[in-house]
# Entry
Amino acid sequence: TRKDGSPLVGARVTFRSPRTGVTATGYTDESGNYSIGTSTPGEGVPPDGYYVTVLEDRGPVTSQKPATVHPKYTLPSDSGLLFKVEDGGETTFDIVLDPP
# Structure
């Protein structure tokens, strides 16, 4: 969600392990919720620490809408988002994004 509590719809959320290179991706729905997974269906996300990036859907390159979240979230080194996935079950990571 954005800092004001509104959902970020259609954003790509990517978890990437700096140790193994494993990447898991998902997209936010109309409520701002997301589920991530690897390229192998049903595989789940291996336990590890992951840098997280969020890429806002701003429309086509030729007619992009203004950004509503800070661009720092597009780079693993700048996002400030690092989550640890534990073995077994589901984990919820709520992400609140700063404005531009």
